[in-house]
Amino acid sequence: MRCLSSSRFLLAAALLLSVLAAPRLAWANLKLCLKDGTCQTVSSYEVHGDRVRYFSVERSEWEEIPASLVDFEATKRALEETKASEKQQIEEAKQIDQERFYKPPDQGLEVAPGIRLPGDDGIFTVDGKRLVRLVQSSSEAVTDKKRAAMVLAVPLPVVKTRSLVVLEGAKATIRLSDPLPVFYVQSTESLGTRLELVRLKPGKETRVVEDVDTSRGKNGKATEVRTMVSLERKQLAPNIYTLKPLAPLDAGEYVLGEVVDDKLSLDVWDFGYEKWEVVK
Predict the structure, then answer these.
(1) Over 90: is that where the pLDDT of 258 sits?
(2) Total domain count for the chain?
(3) In angstroms, rounded to a whole number, what is the distance separating the alpha carbons of residues 125 and 243?
(4) What gap in Å lies between CA 44 and CA 26, rounded to an integer?
(5) Quick check: is 279 in a domain?
(6) Which residue, of 46, 131, 202, 246, is most buried by count of CB atoms within 10 Å of its CB?
(7) Do 97 and 131 have their domain in common?
(8) Backbone phi and psi for residue 249, each to the nearest 5 degrees, phi listed first
(9) Is 67 left (phi over 0), alpha (psi -120 to 50) or beta?
(10) Are residues 87 and 139 in the same domain?
(11) pLDDT in tens, 194-250
(12) How many angstroms separate the CA atoms of 71 and 166, rounded?
């Protein structure tokens, strides 16, 4: 649907109301055409024998002229043109008003009965009878101060610095209830081919995404350690992939993250899975 400014909506609404409130609006600005090629703007006119009486909009008074000076054919054409123009304005106003309040149904892939993906990129899953869009969160690397102090104390490059990649908060905002969720990755950049599922380590105020150990020295290498969850990956359409855990998830916190050359992006999509007990 096209994006329409609020001013355009107000203009359309005002036009529609004014037109519908005055069905004879065409008579408000008539053109009385004369044979010399000029036209008088009148609100109405009357023919009385050989005289034409009209109310001049310009001078706000009644005037009369000989009927022989009036080009009635041109006046008729001008009236038809005015009516056609106002009819078009009414249709345009109705169309704008309809666009404002009517949202066409999503035309994306149907992932469950009555549930379709929207048209934009994103990561989605169906939980119960609702379509859930995962929200992207930014993690950060936090240095282990104790390990860093050891590196400074030992002159040889045998000690590694350690940092933790963490997410703020003990729990993700999005909570799922399905132990075998299917994630639909809709992306024009084939993001679904690079996403992996990672289980997080719980904390009081943060969730640990992974440990990163870096060897001391000029050419020190970083090793990332994370808890990966095996996935089944399928392509449904040119820009749509599904990701599904091979085994039911344990209760806890998880992220979907982009992994390139064994490096996990700091921008991830987090969620939590909670087991719901059935009360009999």
Answers:
(1) yes
(2) 2
(3) 10
(4) 10
(5) no
(6) 131
(7) no
(8) -75, 145
(9) alpha
(10) no
(11) 999 999 999 888 999 988 876 555 555 778 889 999 999 999 988 999 999 999 999
(12) 84
Are 257 and 209 within 8 A, CB to CB? Answer: yes
Q: What is the span of the domain harbouring residue 251?
A: 110-273
Amino acid at 154: V
| Rounded-to-integer distance, Cα 63 and Cα 52, Å | 8
Which of the 8 DSSP states describes residue 94? H
Supply the mean pLDDT for the chain: 80
Provide CB contacts within 8 A for 205, sequence distance 6+: 168, 169, 170
The better pLDDT of the pair 43, 181 is held by 181
pLDDT digit string, tens, across residues 36-84: 989 888 888 899 899 999 988 888 889 999 989 999 999 899 888 888 8
Q: Is residue 280 included in any domain, yes or no?
A: no
> What pLDDT does residue 91 have?
82
Q: How many CB atoms lie within 10 A of CB 242?
A: 17
Spatial CB neighbours of 110, under 8 Å, sequence gap ≥ 6: 116
pTM over 0.90: no
Average pLDDT over residues 183-198: 95
Q: Are 192 and 243 in contact (CB under 8 A)?
A: yes
Residues 61, 172: one domain? no
CA of residue 43 relative to chain centroid, distance? 48
Distances (CA, A) of 143 to 171, 178, 213: 22, 35, 10
Higher pLDDT, 92 or 264: 264
DSSP H/E element including 149 = helix 145-153
Tell me, rounded to whole angstroms, the distance of Cα 4 from its chain centroid.
14
Say yes or no: 143 and 246 in one domain.
Answer: yes
Q: In whole angstroms, give the CA distance from residue 2 to residue 25.
A: 30
Contact 80, 26 (CB under 8 A): no
